[in-house]
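Example record

The entry below shows one chain as it appears in the dataset: sequence first, then structure tokens.
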Amino acid sequence: MSVKTRIETALERFIFMSRWLMAPFYVGLVIALGLLLVVFAQEVLHYVPLAFQPMHEKSSSNAILAVLSLVDITLAANLLLIVIFAGYENFVSRLDLDGEDDRPPWMGTVDFSALKIKLIASIVAISAIQLLRFFMQEPVGVPGMNVEEARWRVIIHLTFVFSGVLLALMDWLVGKTPKH
């Protein structure tokens, strides 16, 4: 083996091993998932006592807002979990979980393209929930509603939706393009 070949092989192995530099990022995301669990528990503990207060006309709206808040946190946690699993398997190493009976069927099948679509779909869902919460707290046409803020929230949400449609269209076009 020539010196050039040995240097090239060593460099390629070094570059290949550099993928492990991503592992701490995924550990950090697992910690963030734990922090989301703490926030979720705080929200539940905040809303449970409110459910036993006497009924008034805003009780149903407040209950819906509470549920939307919990769904919002859950969607963010699902998004984190998808990024952790798919990112680790795509960029660091396969999860060796042979014998695990409850391994989700999608694990190991989410490539970077599918991850992008799942990511933008989750962002759109989270944005939609935030928009719905805003409009439930600030009903349209009510004096004092911040119309400018409402307009920007809708524009931002539609930007996420449009971006998602464009990403899906690009993936579809790439799938239809003959491979080289």
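Notes for this example: Helices lie at 3-17, 23-51, 59-91, 112-137, 147-176. The chain has five helices and no strands.
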